[in-house]
Amino acid sequence: MSSRTIGYARVSSRDQNENRQIDLLLKIGVKPDDIFIDKESGKDFNRPKYNEMIANIHENDTLYISSIDRLGRNYEEIIVQWKKITKDMHADIVVLDMPLLDTRESKDFIGIFISDLILQIQSFVAENERNNIRTRQREGIIAAKNRGVKFGRPKTKLPRDFSEVCLLLKNNECSIREGAKKCKMKKSTFYNKVKEAGVI
Known about the structure:
The protein is of the alpha/beta class. It folds into two domains: about 5-140, 3-Layer(aba) Sandwich (Rossmann fold), CATH 3.40.50; about 160-195. It has eight helices and four strands, in the order E-H-E-H-E-H-H-E-H-H-H-H. Strand 1, helix 1 and strand 2 form a beta-alpha-beta unit. The protein is elongated, with a radius of gyration of 27 Å.
């Protein structure tokens, strides 16, 4: 079987854009059908397209990624996956923004040692950045709460006659369906609100 070039791209959420990564992969000759894209967190490797890609890698194939943090942000798992691809599957990996991380080159002892050392440093940096992002997010949420910013869905504003309708409901003078209609609310919303009010 002839060797192939494969590309992997990842962004953390659906509103992020992966085009820059794809453009880099296309530029170095990866075919569009051989580019696997995940819109998932890099905290682990339980990602649909990553797993599909692994199933499609064969001996002597070359996997291209734009940077090590696109592969993942978990230090230990990056090392495990790197060894799985290069040692167990006998494929190569090229990290485009870090020329020293190119397993096609320098396959002697010193070359492998340097590559492994750079990989460990880069993987540590990727995980550290993920932890920093999470810390900044937590600090941002705390700061926003201290400023009075409310999180979660806004509470449904109750109509003026809600209390009167609740009284009718309590006296068995109307049903949930009728009460919801009177208040111009969805039946499920009305039910939840009267339940919160202790009417039922």
